[in-house]
Amino acid sequence: MKIGIIGSGQMGRGAAFDLAKQDSVDEILLADIDLQNAEALAKEVGPKAKAEKVDAKNRSQLVKFFNKVDSVISAVSYTVNVLHTEVAIETQTHLCDLGGGWVIVEKQLEMNEAAKTANVTIVPDCGLAPGMVSVLARHGIEYLDKVDSVKIRVGGLQQEPRPPLNYSLIFSVEGLINEYVEPCIALRNGKIVKEEPLIGFEEITFPEPYGKLEAFNTSGGTSTLPQTYLGKVDELDYKTIRYPGHGHKMWTLLKLGLMDSKSIEVDGSKIAPRRVLETLLEKNLPPSGKDVTLIRVMVEGWKGTESRIVEYEVIDLFDEKTGLTSMMRTTSFPAAVTAIMMADGRIENRGVLTPERCIPPGPFIEELRERGIDIKQRIV
């Protein structure tokens, strides 16, 4: 099979490295607006990879690219995901992307019938969270006969935290601020609700050296899970894991208005406070270095007449051999697995479907385990 990747940045690189190791993948086409970047990555990945110059915003270039492959991974800004969905339908090519904005996903879902007619599968939000954790939640929900609650806790952290925020930019600053300012969608008492970000603090403990950490509301992580499980689950929420103290510092910046996108006048010039904050974070936060991704998904309910908790835990570390960060692995590998499963027919559903609605959990989890992402499951 032939798989295309749009974007040769960090996530595109992670997906390319993974696909190159799979016997079922014959060719990887790497597309980037900067041909030199794509060629450098192709050389690094090996003989399966070929580079092409493609502007991710240019429809005609995208059509030519999509027509050459069985499925595509879009590893660029979420702002082009609607266009890529349209092109996938036009060219009858399977597509998955890494998400990044609920409004964009809603527009993609509106093309569900068109995708069915084209006999293609399009999977938005196919990264870490939403993405991998959405499939883990489905796995636990399907094991139980009745589900009371689903708690999803995820954090991408430095292995050795450094001030001032005990955080580095594991992924884009734009995506980070979005998580801290946009409403959080959850299920409470069986109803879909919107909650504020940067509240709902709780303590969460992982094995040493991480110990006691904090988790708090952030947006985006639930994606379509509340809609998918409305009427089936009473409580469902998502919180981000950070080192203690980080969340309250970010809450302070939020309340001071430093995350506002509306421009204000300062000394005769207009500027959005958020742009200032983003620029300062990019400039002053320490390099990510060796990172760790912490995941805990807890599904509580009933199996027959007995109370049960199905728990999934992942502690994934920076890969010393490949130089891939854990965030690259846990975000891009799920997309790579999905691209293959769409192309080889293991994902049978057609349409625009988020991960929990189309990805078979068992095979998906096994594929990730084979890639070294140690998903531990326990039932108590």
Report on the structure:
With about 375 residues, the chain is of the alpha/beta class. It has 2 domains: about 170 residues, NAD(P)-binding Rossmann-like Domain (Rossmann fold); about 150 residues, 2-Layer Sandwich (Dihydrodipicolinate Reductase, domain 2). It has 14 helices and 18 strands. The strands form 4 sheets. The protein has a 7-stranded parallel sheet, with helices on both faces. It has a 7-stranded mixed sheet with strand order 10-11-12-7-15-16-18, covered by helices on one side. A two-stranded antiparallel sheet has the order 8-9. The chain is globular and about 50 Å long. The mean pLDDT is about 95.
List the helices and strands and how they pair.
Layout: E1 2-6, H1 10-20, E2 27-32, H2 35-45, E3 49-53, H3 59-66, E4 71-74, H4 81-91, E5 94-97, H5 102-109, H6 112-117, E6 121-123, H7 132-143, E7 146-158, H8 173-181, E8 184-188, E9 191-195, E10 202-206, E11 211-217, H9 225-228, E12 233-242, H10 246-255, E13 264-266, E14 269-271, H11 273-284, E15 291-303, E16 306-317, H12 326-344, E17 351-352, H13 355-358, H14 361-370, E18 376-379
